[in-house]
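Title: Prediction job returns without error message
Component: structure pipeline
Severity: low
Priority: P3
Assignee: unassigned

Description:
Job completed but the reporter wants confirmation the result is attached to the right record. Sequence as submitted:
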Amino acid sequence: MQTIDEVLVRMDQIVAECKAKQSRIGYFAILYRQVTRRIRDGILVREFEDNERMEKLDVLFAGRFIHAYDLWKTGQNPTNSWLLAFEASKGTKHLVLQHLFLGINAHINLDLGISAADTMGTEPIDGIQNDFNNINAVLGELVDGVKSNISAVSPIFGWLIPLAKGRDEMLLNFSIQLARDGAWKYAGEYYACPDRNVSIQERDSKIAKLANKLINPGKFLLFMVKMVGFAEWKSVSRTMDQLDMVVKKAQTI
């Protein structure tokens, strides 16, 4: 893939595949497709610091998710961060928000820093920081919109937030801003590392541990997740349709 339009074609295909197979990977694919559409629209109106470079960054960034998905679908192993997210999608015990955060965890905490450094090549990494932050702002806006309207796909999830106040629960405290800051720090480390394959393996190991915390929240949330899960829609395709409406609405907020 060389253009953002080609990325969107592939994202449409992935969303359709997930619907047809009732795959919960589709939850993240729905969200991320809307992120890509929003970035495409921003490029068209020249809103980014370097619009041509932003397209290159977006193609590399999206390509890492698509490549991981294609590897897993054909029985091969992607990075551990993505493998945990994909394998979790097979079961019915996780909430929609857990599936979304597992995808965001792998994509922001691992993929984004790599993509930013690869976009810059030998040019100073600091040159892309503003547009790096712009991608995170788009994603953060959509995630906030989803969380604000989560009752559309998870009717009683909102009850968890006041009940869990003051508790250190990874699922409720997952922060796009903290992920962004960590991803930018890692972008610099990866950019400067003489052995980038080793760097990816070490980073992936750390991010996989965060994924495990999202999959296995604290004792309080583990009990509540089971209760909330009973109230979520069981049809994956129906949930995807509703989530698509939520993320489109969030973009206009």
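Comment from assignee: result matches the submitted record. Residues 170 and 213 are 6 Å apart (CA to CA).
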